[in-house]
Amino acid sequence: MNILLVEDDLELGNGVRIALEDEGMKVTWLRRVQEAARALDDALVDLVLLDLGLPDGDGLSLLARLRRARDTTPVLVLTARDALEDRLAGLDGGADDYLVKPFALAELVSRVRALARRSYGLEGQALVIRNLTLHEATMRVTVDGRPVELSRSEFDLLCLLVKRADRVLTRRTLEEQVLPGGLNNESNVLDVHMSNLRRKIGAGFVRTVRGVGYVIDRHAAAGEP
Ligand code: CA
Fold first, then answer.
1. What gap in Å lies between CA 98 and CA 121, rounded to an integer?
2. How far, in Å, from the CA of 8 to the mean position of ligand 1?
3. Per residue in 23-41, pLDDT tens?
């Protein structure tokens, strides 16, 4: 789980970071709207924790920007503004959940877990796209109901692509996430994993975007499963 924490309060931010890291989550902690916007463009983020009152603007503008771009990354808003109209504005702006400060860290952790479950089926139900089902907790993948045996790297690649269906992932992003040692322009390790993955799950599933990377389309093109 990659969490982007956007919070300018140092004490609170540090407490949240430690609480989530204790749960085995990876936390990137930023304090400004602009930095967070860049991180959301560049990095793989599973869930955003978003403060509204930030030094260079309102967190809601970041949320609005995400949703305009049809980015469905779950967002949990953290705010001291507990007035009812503010809550409603946040939820209308596409927030998935809302926590009013001050809150107990245990409550935050449980909301994050619940949101992740709802969005990704990280612990509960499987992710389903077209004729493929993926269960992250058990690393089980089926195509048309038939189990498919994948290596760890193939599974990790598939998992990233499925979680971010309809978004093109660059070669660099995929390499950084799944290949030990990360970047190596000369390496064709990614191509080897991708070709094995395609052989196992069916060729039409992962689409190459020439010169950029790969994408899984939520809906099949004509003639595909
Ligand atoms: Ca703040």
1. 20
2. 5
3. 989 999 999 999 999 998 7
